[in-house]
Amino acid sequence: MADLTGKVALITGAARGQGAAEAKLFVERGAKVVITDVLETEGKELAESLGENARFVRHDVTDSESWDAAVAVAVDTFGKLDVLVNNAAIYTMKPIAETTPEELERILTVNLVGAFRGIKAVLPAMTANGGSIVNISSQSGLEGLMNHSAYGSSKWGLRGLSKVAALELGLSQIRVNSVYPGPIATPMVPYLTTGPGSFPTLPLERTGLPEEVAELVAFLASDASAYITGAEVSVDGGLAAGKFIPRGM
Q1: Any idea where the domains of the chain sit in the sequence?
Q2: Catalytic annotation on 151?
Q3: Which of 151, 180, 191, 227 is catalytic?
Q4: Cβ contacts of 142 within 8 Å, gap of 6 or more
Q5: 249 pLDDT higher than 80
């Protein structure tokens, strides 16, 4: 079990879904958390439910000044910043022929450039004492996935950014790792169901839960992963393992 006692974390896109699960688990494990999102109502309610160890900040990841303000809340309120989880993302599923350049640019701006802005924004707070950055990519950032040209491109880009950041920031003892969720039941993909047999074309035959992603993120944020940087870790029910033949076929 990852111990986050004394850590201060900033988690983007944390008003609901995976980000909310991460925020809840971080507080349970002893961290203080700044929850950021553009969804103010949900974000405020979550922060209030977590008590004095959580704060909500309305935060647009596409804006550098908004990033600086969010980091300032973490440092001014809790005294430091140890962890950044770049979780915020937007999603679309369309064939290339139906995807406009403007849609591609919008997704890249949020999912990739937003994470880039975040890495730059936390450097002043983390450089003195080190830290952990966890970038949430996707299975579509590990292999081509039909109808995911825009979303997949952003997540492939985040994969590369994570590698370069790990190389450049290691001298400051800032670790950078990336996480690759498979089919996870969140509001972003409401058509996914949960429970045994919910995804029979995977080795584990089910859809994943946000809490299962959160456990991995907590580990990478904790000192238990102190010698891990530049890693790519899938949490996908076996999707990336290879060609799987469902039972009965």
Answers
A1: 8-238
A2: yes
A3: 151
A4: 159, 180, 232, 234, 240
A5: no
Burial class (CB in 10 A: 0-12, 13-18, 19+), 211: middle
Q: Looking at per-residue confidence, does 31 or 190 come out higher?
A: 31
Q: Would you tell me which CATH number, out of the four given (3.40.50.720, 3.90.950.10, 3.90.78.10, 3.30.950.10), belongs to the domain 8-238? A: 3.40.50.720
pTM of this structure: 0.96
